[in-house]
Amino acid sequence: MKSLPDVQTELLATAYRLVLPETALFGAACILFLVAAFYPRRWLAIALGLLGITAAGLIAATVGPDEIALFNKAVEGTSFAPRSVAPFDPTGVAPFVRWLSIAAAGLFLLLAYNETTDSTACEYAACVLIVAAGASMVARANDLVSLFLALEMISIPTYVLLYLPAKSKFGQEAAAKYFLLSVLSSAVLLFGFSYLYGLAGSTNIGAVVEALAIAHQHGVSPMALVGVFLAIAGIGFRIAVVPFHFYAPDVYEGGPTGVVAQLAVVPKIAGMIALARILGMLNPPGDRLPFDSAHTLIPLTLWVLAAVTMTFGNVMALLQDNVKRLLAYSGIAHGGYMLIGLVVASAVPEATDADFAQSGVDSILFYLVAYALMTIGAFAVIQRVAGTTGDGRVMLDDLAGLGQTRPATALAMTIFLLSLIGLPLTAGFMGKFLLFLGALDSAGPMGTMHRILVIIAAVNAAIGAVYYLRAIGVMYLRSPMQAASPSKTAPAFAAAILCAVATIAIGVYPKPLADAAKEAVPTRSSSR
């Protein structure tokens, strides 16, 4: 029988085969950095970036089915579970998030075309590919070290992306603010990981979750609570959860539109998946949750964060006239909606339904796709409109008469805003419906709290409808303040149309995406 060191050595030797598409993205980024030194051209940068994404997609489609077999092979004939020793886990949510990251990167490259010059385009495209690779690896990380490195693969290129297209002091200020606060959040997160490692004696996430579950069998472990609270704080910055949201409005307003779209989407994808993994919600059936409502206050903490975040974000968005700041606070509110899924999943020990935890996490996956489409699409429209405003800032007044001057662009923006509200026949409606349904179907002592949270979310959705409908009214009920000028933002327009079509398609026929999200999350038994 293989010993533990033998198994670990074999898994490390084959670990690279579990991240081949991510390696392809990283390799394409390296090529772009080299091209930047010898032949910097914007068209070439975007072409090479799209080629790298295509290569990663083809590799993912080819090697994906074989990854699980490779993952299990190293522990054949042993008593070890692969998740207890492997640095990467290709099962569960990993394929789902990989495809989401690759698709989002393609849209971000379309937004990059009008935001860069020949001298910066290669570095910009390279950073987009690295961010996509990092987001995908967050879902595969099965170790605190690999998880932290994957999160930093998202953060560090974002610093460069914020600064590269910055043409004003306002934009440079946004880059500096995000850099300093992001570094602080990374330090807090790493400090929290050190507590978890000290308690478990291992950096393997499966071992950490098991050690924490054991520690809470006979009482609450203060060290475990400190570690997880610090981890929530560090990841909460990336999700822009209150009170870790304060950077978002200024950075959104001052940052380049395409980069802000990434900042609004990718950290939320990575942050939600990272939180679910650390809290044990993505572990296989039969594993115990270390931070459940029977032994800790973590579910209640998530409940409070969700309620406060969605309420604060929507109320503050009501006061905004700058469209980017409005979407910043809207993004904060949507982060609160997503936390509902984590609240539901964290209370599974009291549930009687075996699919209870699944109804929390898979609804987050569905909502992440819907949120990515409507948010990227909205920023694509902003980039198109910003081409006609002097400093690139877009106020609500700049949308006046858009239905007359650019009817297709206005229609796309209307679809995104209606989806953000959560009206039927849009992806946003189905996302909210699944989140709310999971909470309403919950049982046990936390069931009443979940229903109260749904009521708070419904009230917030109504508040959100006010400022979203106001923007739609400005586009169709007011006269244009200036004549439409020729636009050279065809790539951004293409991204907006793609997102609009997908938003309606998912809203009308959500079953394939809902099934994919459900299959990505292991069904957790309610027994302990």
Structure class = mainly alpha
Number of beta-strand segments: 0
Strand content: under 5%
Biggest sheet, in brief? Answer: none
Radius of gyration in whole Å, from Cα?
Answer: 22 Å
pLDDT below 50 for ≥5 consecutive residues: which ranges? Answer: 349-358
H/E element order: HHHHHHHHHHHHHHHHHHHH
Q: Distance between the terminal alpha carbons, to the nearest Å?
A: 30 Å
In one word, what is the shape? globular
- Helical residues, percent: over 70%
Number of helices: 20
Mean pLDDT over all positions: 83
Verbal overview:
The longest helix has 32 residues. Helix content is 72%, strand content 0%. It has 528 residues and is mainly α. It has 20 helices and no strands. The protein has a domain of 233 residues.
Please tag this protein with its features.
globular, 72% helix, single chain, 528 residues, mainly alpha, 0% strand
Protein topology:
Elements lengths: L3 H11 L5 H19 L3 H32 L20 H19 L8 H20 L3 H20 L5 H32 L4 H11 L6 H18 L8 H7 L2 H22 L19 H20 L5 H24 L9 H31 L15 H4 L1 H15 L5 H14 L6 H31 L12 H19 L2 H10 L8
Short description:
The chain is 72% helix and 0% strand.
